[in-house]
Design goal:
This protein has one domain. The chain has 174 residues and is an alpha+beta fold. The protein has helices spanning 2-19, 145-151; strands spanning 40-44, 54-58, 62-67, 76-87, 90-97, 113-119, 125-130, 169-171. Helices cover 14% and strands 30% of the residues. The N and C termini lie far apart (52 Å). The longest helix is centred in the first third of the chain and has 18 residues, at 2-19.
Length: 174
Amino acid sequence: MRFILKTIIILLLFVNCELYGKISDDDSNIQGSLPSLLLGEWAFIQPGLTTPAERYVIEENTIQYGYGEGESQYDYKGDILFVSNYSADSGVIIIKYFDTERPSYTGYNGNLFFGIYYRNLKNNTVQLANAINLSDFTAPDTKTPEEAIAKFTRLKMGNYVDWSAVQHQSRVLK
């Protein structure tokens, strides 16, 4: 009985490690699909306020992001080009900014392709994080979608996201 229990524990650890890439050295993004749970509007509203400090609107083919400007403002919009699912509740979304609605943030480098990571996806909460170079807080946008797919990977996530600083966004119910 003890042997069977140890075997089950080892197998569960192996499966969990493989899902999060801790055993495999392969850091390639694999084409997946946008989780249907991500569709909709997500916002972080600071306690005591009514206007979102941050919001994402995710549709089947597009994404819109706004920071600190209220419900009708956004900082960028883009087409969803590629999704890689790292587990049932985490992954990366690669987008191409709309030509007329590129980012308005300081330090935008003019490139069109960008990564947005997500994790802890549940029915009504998720952590969504725009990639940013944590070493100098500059934009890590790329010139081609291939560069973005190779750059914004599971194992490189720590270069672009400090999860301790990412608030949970809540689903906006209409």
